Amino acid sequence: MYKNYLIIVAAALLSGCPGPGDRIPPKEPANVAIRDNRVCITAPIRTGEYVSAVQISDGEDNHLLRTLAKKPVYVTNGQCLPTFGYDFKRDHTYTAYYTIEKNDIDSGRYLSVVFSTLNGLQQISPPVGR
Q1: In this structure, are residues 108 and 100 in contact, taking their beta carbons and an 8 Å threshold?
Q2: Phi and psi for 52 in degrees, rounded to 5?
Q3: Could you give the CA distance from residue 113 to residue 98 in angstroms, rounded to a whole number?
Q4: Of 28, 18, 3, which is closest to residue 96 (Cα–Cα)?
Q5: What is the residue-averaged pLDDT of the chain?
């Protein structure tokens, strides 16, 4: 009997149930525009911050996932965030996520933007500042 309780308690402890410290940080909005005939995603970037991960998808079969742990990309405020040559096509809807970090101690910020290329470039998610 004691053995059964021990197994149940061990399983509960190892399951990693979410608690108050496991909150997923909210995503902050980014903006999208056409700059120099390319899709340009921008967001407020603070001094010393860098891009540590990028995920772009059209929800179908065209995905990009890049983790930049060894070679982070530093950008300045107003500069286009990297898209690494992602092939944006007409008549698609895209979602882009960026992880922005400053150091290994503080938690990162998560940026997101949803946009469409159905009739030109149209941002679907709320832009920064609204």
Answers
A1: yes
A2: -110, -15
A3: 9
A4: 28
A5: 83
What span, in angstroms and rounded, lies between the C-alpha atoms of 9 and 97?
38
Angle at alpha carbon of residue 77, lines to 84 and 123, rounded to 5°: 65
Q: What predicted TM-score, i.e. pTM, was given to this entire model?
A: 0.76
pLDDT(17) > 80: no
Range of lowest pLDDT (14-28, 36-50, 69-83): 14-28
Residue 49, pLDDT above cutoff 80: yes
Query: Which token pair is 2?
Result: 């004691």
Task: Tell me the two tokens of residue 6.
Answer: 């021990």
- Tokens standing for residue 99: 């992880």
Tally DSSP H helices, then E strands, for the chain: 1, 9
CA quadruple 11, 17, 20, 23: dihedral positive or negative?
Answer: positive
Q: Rg for the chain (alpha carbons), in Å?
A: 19
